[in-house]
Amino acid sequence: MGSPLVVFVRAKFLTAPCFSVCSTSFGNVIELVEMGRENHRIASGGAATRILLPAAWLLVLMTALLNGFRLSLHSDMLFQADLFRDLFDLGGAWSHWRFTPAPAYVPDTALNALAYLLLVHPGDRILLVTILQILILAGSAIFLARQIMPDVSKVGIASLLIVLSLTNLVAVDHGWFYHIHNNVHVPTTIFGLLCLGAFLRFIDRGGVVWLLALGLGVVVAVLSGSLFILAFVVPMSLVGLMTAALAGRDARTRNRVILATLMVLGAFAVAKGLEGYVTYNDPLLGRASISRVRMIASLNKFLDSFELLYRSADALVWIFLGSMAAALLYSAAALPGIVQFRRETGARTEGLSSLRIGMVECDGRLAIAWAFLLASGGVLVTGSIISGGYADEFGLRYLMLPGALVFLLSLIIHDRRCAGRQTRSRWSGYAAGLCLVGLGATGAAMATTRIMAPDFSFSHLRDYGVVPILGLQGDNRLYEWQIAACLDDLGGKHKLRTGISDYWHARGVQYQTRSIDRMIAVQPDLRPFFWMSTVGPLIRQQHYGTHINFVITARDSAAAGSIPFLADNIEAQLPSGYERHRCEQAAFDVFYYSGSELHDFMMKRRVPQTKLETGLWGESAVALVAADLPGIVGHVQGDARTVQGGDGQGGVLTFGPYANLSPGKYVACVDYQSSTGGSGGSGVGSWDFVGVVDGPQTFFQAPLKTGRQSACSGEVSVLKGAKNVEVRTFFNGLGDLSVSGIALKRIDSK
């Protein structure tokens, strides 16, 4: 149990809610140790109790397997499969990939790398990673439980596993709280439990190893997702500072708390410093900063999550929510009864067995854990709304860590109350066994219902998955299977190479057909969509054998889904020379090119923008035609933007493309033609090469002279790299000016 300790603090902190938690009477610490040992002996005896813990582990595994029934092989879920296929099989580069703001490198991406080496089918890998994460989550919860209560009984551990099994069952049909990979709330919960356990272990017993383990956990977790900052770093820092302030005359505990808190903050700083070396392409680049509009949108999505929860709730969901509410109420009701008031004496002891706040004595481990629970829940909700973090109606999953702590702390309190009381402990074991049997029967019934469905087959589930999670928009069916069948038919007549489509169909279709080389996700304006994808096939065309020769589009908005990638709109942007094929199996059309018209169009008119946005390109220059650049004055004429003196006053003819440049040496060029309507051969305007380094910076500026056709800047050194880089042209209102294009050239080797 550790050395006994009394921590003296000022009475003015008596009202701090997080320290109103108490686990036992201070006057009976020695008795508690003996009761805990007796409880352990009781829990270890009896055939029924010995069977309970292995049976609970078996239930966790069974309910984890049931998550295979909700396997959905859509674009998001296939991201990891695409990543490691590119890295391991196609010779791709990590630096060419753009991840989400929450990449979940550990354990998610690491486990997916292992699964890719072990298994062939993407669905098998997803299920394996899901099961492994659930088992890791179970181990993390048990680790934290043992740090809070070293003598936790086998019944207590089994109860934790039974609650996890209930969560797994709820996850089978509901997407608001689930254990499917590629979602950072699961790694955040795992690292939150582990880091909180390491924090408590170091404060209680010291040890450089535990302090370093805490720091390493924070570094890895922050690199894996910014959600961990709100879920752990901020609340743990607040709790640590408060604990240090309340520690009174116990210098050893206070110093350990300060060291652990500084380690959390220092590890966070280290992680932010390493971020650019691990995640090469900023996933939030170009996204609007914090604003009132984003806050309101995030709040609305958070409220939508409750609407979705209510709409989709069934008996299992209400049991889960009722259990969580009961756990919270049970803990709150039990704690005041075991708080003991004592007058402050001059006695001075050391350790974390008790925490003194004025005249209130509490168990320090439970106090800190409860304080963290309250802080984490509040910071998560508030911070996610303010930062605009709620982007969909499944936002309740971000509260997975506080939810896990609600169950864990209530079960620990119950286990302590059962210590030394044989009858209560026995009935607690019976109740746990009854819950185990009930959940096992429920899981078996769920599996049987699905297997006995007339159209069910394991092979179909494994190969095609199920309909994606239902949201507020209803059935989000993507029809990848039907589109793939259409491509297989078309592939028998034509050579299909690289295709383009919207994000939600591109990767899913790619994995359902063998008639094509690959799919590339694009936006409705046909610019490549650089999100959870690689630019490798676009900037290393010869390496990948990229030749874009077909487009997949939806015939109506109902089939298109959330992205309006409609056939009529896309057709208006395509170059001539295509054959339009109708897919009878789904409301989609395929535009096929037998020549290189589409490939040339994409490489000249659409891909350069993406290359400049990423700051990654293999060739020495990237050029854009002026017709694809925005402007304020003038009009598009062919590939150029043109303005004449008679059109009105002068202004910005072209601006953009808001490129991102990695550190290096560059030259910017502009191709133009000009003539003057005035006298003396005066210029028609000016151009500049600008960007943002530490602030707005002008790299080069020069006039646009009459009669000139091209101009280039001198050598420009961008030592730190630059964002939002533009090559702008300005018309002064005199004469005529036509800009045909701009170019950025890199003149040093990368």
TrEMBL record:
<protein>
    <submittedName>
        <fullName>Uncharacterized protein</fullName>
    </submittedName>
</protein>
<feature type="transmembrane region" description="Helical">
    <location>
        <begin position="51"/>
        <end position="69"/>
    </location>
</feature>
<keyword id="KW-0472">Membrane</keyword>
<feature type="transmembrane region" description="Helical">
    <location>
        <begin position="257"/>
        <end position="274"/>
    </location>
</feature>
<feature type="transmembrane region" description="Helical">
    <location>
        <begin position="126"/>
        <end position="149"/>
    </location>
</feature>
<feature type="transmembrane region" description="Helical">
    <location>
        <begin position="209"/>
        <end position="236"/>
    </location>
</feature>
<feature type="transmembrane region" description="Helical">
    <location>
        <begin position="315"/>
        <end position="339"/>
    </location>
</feature>
<keyword id="KW-1133">Transmembrane helix</keyword>
<feature type="transmembrane region" description="Helical">
    <location>
        <begin position="184"/>
        <end position="203"/>
    </location>
</feature>
<feature type="transmembrane region" description="Helical">
    <location>
        <begin position="155"/>
        <end position="172"/>
    </location>
</feature>
<feature type="transmembrane region" description="Helical">
    <location>
        <begin position="366"/>
        <end position="390"/>
    </location>
</feature>
<keyword id="KW-0614">Plasmid</keyword>
<feature type="transmembrane region" description="Helical">
    <location>
        <begin position="427"/>
        <end position="447"/>
    </location>
</feature>
<keyword id="KW-0812">Transmembrane</keyword>
<feature type="transmembrane region" description="Helical">
    <location>
        <begin position="396"/>
        <end position="415"/>
    </location>
</feature>
